[in-house]
Amino acid sequence: MHGMAPSDSAKTGTLAPTITRPRVVILGAGFGGLNAAQALRSAPVDVTVIDRRNYHLFQPLLYQVATAGLSPAQIATPIRRILARQKNATVLMDRVLDVDLERRLVITRQREVPYDYLIVATGARHAYFGHDEWEAFAPGLKKIDDATALRTRILAAFERAEVTEDEAERKRLLTFVVIGAGPTGVEMAGAIAELAKMGIARDFRNIDPRQAEILLVEAGPRILASFPDSLSQAAQRQLERLGVKLVLGEAVVACDADGIALKDGRRIDSGTLVWAAGVEASPAAKWLKAPADRAGRVIVAPDLRLPGYPNVFVIGDTAAVKDAAGIAVPGIAPAAKQMGRFAANEIIASIKGKPPRDFTYRDYGNLATIGRKAAVADFGRFRFSGLIAWLLWSFAHVWFLIGFRNRFTVFFDWIWAYVTYQRGARLITGGEN
Amino acid sequence: MHGMAPSDSAKTGTLAPTITRPRVVILGAGFGGLNAAQALRSAPVDVTVIDRRNYHLFQPLLYQVATAGLSPAQIATPIRRILARQKNATVLMDRVLDVDLERRLVITRQREVPYDYLIVATGARHAYFGHDEWEAFAPGLKKIDDATALRTRILAAFERAEVTEDEAERKRLLTFVVIGAGPTGVEMAGAIAELAKMGIARDFRNIDPRQAEILLVEAGPRILASFPDSLSQAAQRQLERLGVKLVLGEAVVACDADGIALKDGRRIDSGTLVWAAGVEASPAAKWLKAPADRAGRVIVAPDLRLPGYPNVFVIGDTAAVKDAAGIAVPGIAPAAKQMGRFAANEIIASIKGKPPRDFTYRDYGNLATIGRKAAVADFGRFRFSGLIAWLLWSFAHVWFLIGFRNRFTVFFDWIWAYVTYQRGARLITGGEN
Questions:
Q1: pTM to 2 decimals?
Q2: How confident is the model over B185-200, as pLDDT tens digits?
Q3: Do A313 and A119 contact (CB within 8 A), yes or no?
Q4: How far is A282 from chain B (nearest CA, A)?
Q5: DSSP for A204-256?
Q6: Using a CB-CB distance cutoff of 8 angstroms, which residues of chain A are in contact with residue B80?
Q7: Three-class SS of residue A105?
Q8: Between β-strands B76-78 and B89-93, what pairing exists: parallel, antiparallel or unpaired?
Q9: A126 DSSP assignment
Q10: Which domains does chain B carry?
């Protein structure tokens, strides 16, 4: 028997009075939620983590699964495994339907879960700006299944190109379009280019994968808009060296089974579209009946609390927040982790009767990778691109991967891929062909 | 440009006379088909391998994917990667619809592929003895997607049991039924028992996974019927030590969403059924308009040729054959490999004008694994069970896994799992929850 479940004490039949400890419920086990739970490890509270998936995902490497470099299990770990030894933590795999703020209940598909403190960290998903019908043609990249579905599309395009006897169709199948040139779009375009030009270049007979066209389409004037201009330029040069073609300042006005249409009237025929153009927050604002920004993020004060409900925190990509210094907190993993730890510490302080404080975001820099020996790194005064940035990026990502085992196998797979140019997870799964 | 594809010579525009080499078409890249292709490496033929999947699967370890021990990419390798350096081999990912024996054409979904020699090695799939409606409730285990779907079912059963507040439902969710006690059924039952009793035992709060019931149901009088009686007995003891309950001599008469019904009228409520009770051959007999046995296998003579068509070979699980010594060739990987190499050598001999020979099966022994330090091994005069058999099994399987990289990572994962009792791929994927 483990933990403090009600059935245990019922079974042992003790007459001791139940010591009620504050119940902290955390919605979502991404970077924010998981760091909050872990920061409550020694606190006199009962923690319940609710997530509709059973795994914590190291999302920054998801594009590697989508391009056959890593296996899903290398970047995802069961949430309950991570928290197995934290005696005050319970994990429930369930879908949140609503929150009753007055009765302090989380309503899930299977039950109602009472809380004294609530941390909402349900993250974001890709958004199509009112064109949800595009999702079927241009899938995004947020969970494992997205990544394996994209992997299947990308690899199957080469396979179909090898089989077909129709030249136009072959050209269409060998054209890949990535929409949106933020970090995810840049990573995907670079990784598809490396897959085509190096990883599988010698494996076909009727096609030459090196002839594949990889287009990166961006509505804004430059790629990686969150980076300084000089690093955008450097990233652009590195992408072009990999053979990626940039289409800048062009909005996509249609996605369909045969390709995309651009605002200027051009059509690009393509067999594989990847959506990396935008995200919107989970439905948390609806559950909390709270005001949200255009991306659906709950607007919270620098104390990360829901206005009027000092026991409810909103963190990570679910929150739109300016910190104590007036800085808009970015939607990246380090920010979510910091907010998770902050919310946990505020709960501990609140139990001790201390007043609320404001969150201050610490900016440790910004990294984006493009491909083999190609990346950009922005640490304010220090900026790097190329090999040094790529080494920084590689070590940072392996380091932050949860669990020794995954760290080791990812490291091994990367060394192997570096030496052989091979990608280890080239499997077309799902559906029949 | 690579290889000898027609488009290449068209592009280079050479006027040299086309040297027509015999075209060997191989349907299916399992153990039989792949070994046939590789045995033709230096032969003066053009080889085309057609498979509807892009990977060769090391099927004997598929149960490890279904029970979260290994990742799909560790036991599957792209077919075209394996054959990348074999200049006379082309791989097409396509679905075979029919064979035109008179015009010597394979008809696929996308094209017609002419052949001079044909090797049919399309394998087998699970069979429900006329109850195909059972498949939705009791899925089998033949391809990667079967394994990841089963993994999701097994892991989700524990997750749902943790969340539910209904005691009867919890008991049902913690009951696992494996139907059929051949090697696959024994492996599955043993692996589910190890997962529940060791791998995840400490990760839950409201349930104790060690209380899970794992039932192995078999219509025949004993498990592992293809092994000598003494090894069946040994395997049975090892399974029972792992906590698996055996239900022998009981046919399943119904499978539904809530469990199974047995012939004697008993019902077993269960949240997870696994089908390991039977296979049937692929539709090859239909394509070839050839007589088949009860399991759908094409009946061929000891020369492995389709009667009346000396240029058409049927091998592996697709064939029902008694070899030159009158021994029924078993449906296992080593037999398929031998038949693949035999067919390739017969084609080489035929090109040289030599007469057909008969196939002789070489029995190198029979292995089945049950769990940690538990297995049985039958080498005729020498029989082993327990630790020695398990070590033999482990080394044989790591050895035969294709590719150094997979061999290394599987080996590492096993050592890791052995030391920590952890299973590395506990991901619930596919569908939303």
A1: 0.88
A2: 999 999 999 999 988 9
A3: yes
A4: 15
A5: -SS--GGG-EEEEEESSSSSSTTS-HHHHHHHHHHHHHTTEEEEES--EEEEE
A6: 200, 203-204
A7: strand
A8: unpaired
A9: E
A10: 6-12+21-52+94-126+280-351 (3.50.50.60), 132-277 (3.50.50.100)
